[in-house]
Amino acid sequence: METAAAGATPARPGGLPRDDSLPFLAATCAVGCAAAAITVTSHARLLFDHLWLSGALWAGAAGIGFAVGWGLFRLLGFQRRTLTLRLAVISLALAFAAVWGANSISSHIFMNAWARYEAELGGPGQCLAGTPYGKDRASVVTWVATGDDRMEIWPGGPIPKGTPKGYKYPVLKLTHAVNGGTRPLAPADDMSRDLLRSYGCR
After folding, report:
1. What global pTM score does this model have?
2. Is it the case that residue 47 has pLDDT exceeding 70?
């Protein structure tokens, strides 16, 4: 009768080494990559505008995650380690952290139109902050029709003393106001361009 050498890795029937942890870790990488891809495509509006393309990206991310995870953890010797509760919890926590990080980064890159206006023009520290076009006073109107990237900023707040009776602040019109877009907001006409310049913008 054969006996196992001291310190040898327990074997499965047939003499194969135990690899309980490797499939789980590779699958966790696949799920984490797919979940990260879902968050990115949702912020980038691909999820809503190009569902089939999004599905292909999710499948590709899952496949790459599984392949990379399998190869990396196999290289590190996890094919000879038994899956334990501690290892499972750590791997799931790392996958969750990766998805959370992808969500945070993509939410800053692919912002909605109002968030981009606040970050680029009307928010604290920006050129329109504290003006009738600042985020605390203005109202925003956007168009959701396909191919229409217009955005109007309706000014608010009191009219300064000495202003001619009946005077109204002009409406600021911007383009590139696409939810999930990455192009900076830009004036849609000459009046809006002059208005931005008068406040020292761009």
Report:
1. 0.62
2. no
